[in-house]
Write a structure and sequence with these properties.
This protein has 199 residues and is an alpha+beta fold. Helices cover 17% and strands 44% of the residues. It contains 4 helices and 10 strands. Strands 1-6-7-8-9-10 form a 6-stranded mixed β-sheet. A 4-stranded antiparallel β-sheet has the order 2-3-4-5. It is globular.
């Protein structure tokens, strides 16, 4: 098993803000207070923390936005994600079925005193419902200063305007969503994935 170097890790995470902010784009007209940026979940943007070959799992940390690190674990044909800033948190999100994540994460940003602060992310997941067929879901996550929670889902293979709807959920639902109290809902048209997940 290979373990990570905490000093190298802190330097890696500290470099997240500049890389992501280069991709910053303006929001749509009428919503100038909200903008967005993209980060990657790929080899160039992630660092391996642990590889356990005996048990068949690994963990990486990826560059997010404004110092928010994205932790990605993989094992048993499933991936899981966690977000961390200053608070250590071993809580991860995943689907129970076999799954994998897309390589591009969208960050929704709110303007606070001239600073772009991330308040939500949107990430595409590919989830096996009936092998070898995969269904796609956009997972909307609320990002808090020291925590995160899943705030909603859009079934991308059933909803024609999945990307637009996911942004609407992030911008309109997430601000009032209470982590630990509210339950994430499926939004828009649903299909076999939502049905399988809500049985």
């Amino acid at each position: 098993m290979v373990a990570f170097d905490p000093v190298k890790f802190m330097g890696f995470v500290a470099g997240t803000s500049f890389a992501a902010s280069l991709l910053l784009l303006s929001g749509p007209a009428g919503s100038a207070e909200i903008s967005h940026a993209y980060s990657k979940l790929d080899e160039a943007s992630c660092m391996t923390l642990v590889v356990n070959e005996e048990e068949g799992w690994s963990q990486q940390v990826c560059k997010g936005y404004d110092g928010v690190a994205v932790f990605v674990s993989e094992g048993d044909l499933r991936m899981s994600l966690s977000y961390r800033t200053q608070k250590a948190d071993d809580r991860y999100f995943t689907f129970g079925n076999f799954n994998r994540v897309g390589d591009t994460m969208e960050w929704r940003l709110r303007d606070e005193e001239g600073r772009k602060v991330p308040f939500a992310t949107i990430l595409r997941w590919y989830v096996s419902v009936e092998q070898p067929r995969e269904e796609q879901a956009l997972v909307i996550t609320k990002i808090e200063e020291n925590d995160f929670c899943i705030a909603g889902f859009v079934e991308a293979t059933a909803e024609r305007n999945a990307n637009l709807l996911a942004r609407d959920v992030a911008d309109q639902v997430v601000p009032g969503f209470v982590c630990g109290q509210d339950q994430p809902q499926w939004h828009g048209q649903t299909g076999p994935l939502a049905s399988a997940m809500t049985r």
